Amino acid sequence: MPIKFNICQEEFKGKFQERQPLIIKGAVDTTDVRWSDVNDIISRCDPQSENFRVSFPSGNIPKDRYVHTYFHVGDVRRKLNKPALYDFLRQGGTLVANNIYDEPIFNDFAKYIAQFTGRQTVTSAYITFGKTDSYREHWDSRGVFAVQLKGRKRWVLYEPSFEAPLYMHQSKFIEEKYPCPTEPYMDFVLEEGDVFYIPRGWWHNVTPLGEPTVHLAIGTFPAFAVDYVKWIFRQLPECIHARMALETFEQDAETIRALSEHISARMNDPTAYQAFMETHLGEQILETRLNLEKLGDAKVGALKGDDRIRLNVLRTDISDEYLVTNGGKVSFKDELSTVRDFLVDNPKIGVSQLLEKFPHHSRSQLSEVLYLLATNGAIEIL
Fold this sequence. Notes:
Blueprint: H1 9-15, E1 22-24, H2 35-44, E2 52-56, E3 59-60, E4 67-72, E5 75-80, H3 82-90, E6 94-100, H4 104-117, E7 120-128, E8 143-150, E9 153-158, H5 171-174, E10 186-190, E11 195-198, E12 203-208, E13 213-221, H6 225-234, H7 249-267, H8 270-282, H9 292-295, E14 308-311, E15 322-325, E16 328-331, H10 337-345, E17 348-350, H11 351-357, H12 363-375, E18 379-381
């Protein structure tokens, strides 16, 4: 399920990402998202988890009021108390499911956003039927793409009062010092199929309009400057100055000066920065669909021409020679470098189309290379 961003990556990153909100009208086709799909996904969530809740403006409903605990053949199990959940929703509550993963119908949207922004994503779903706000005005410590899958919602947006919050910051704990502005920056209705980008730190309040509504909040998580500092500091035991015992400032001034110079030199070293970014990207995972029949069968060693594939890499601009994935670096040496470039420019393509593009390469060799990329998660079979 692609997202039509209607803006190039360069323009988005230069004008909007971390800077300004952006409404993208008609960005997704929602016809393939059925209520049966939504019901199935919610049914597979763990209702006892802190990631699952039923919310009202006054707070979250206690778990024991909508989660049923019972014994089954000696096991303690928990499941949704459906009559109770239905009742809370009829009263205007909002069902919130955070950290949804391995659900292609929802996570395909997240994957497009991850590759568009070059950032790891986390998917949450918000479902309600009434007119009651699920929260009051607040901001998030991550940039969010709101994908309106069903119905409509009213969004009121306010400019930041606390710039660039991190994960340890929450608006409810510092709003007395950094209150929400009184004048809205935007006030509009997000319609089905629209996508709305909200940079981190922007105050907002979201109100349902008395109709069935489902939207995804897909949070984006980049590498932050503080992460780079932490990465540098984890390597400090290799530096002799960091291993010195301290007594008094006067006695240790030279050690502190030398250590600070070492830290500064490392942080301003492009090679260190590149290594940090590759480490960060290598820790991120883009989910792929399980494909047992093609990738788990020892009798299959190559992809077929009618297979369709999608490049499954968070960022392709880190190096011209290799791709950084959760499985490590994937190098394309010699004549295969042109295959890498083609995949970067055509991230979603049929295997037969790719093979036809390189008539001078061995078809069997290329198919085997694609197969290896698929087994390692660098490409996904659609």
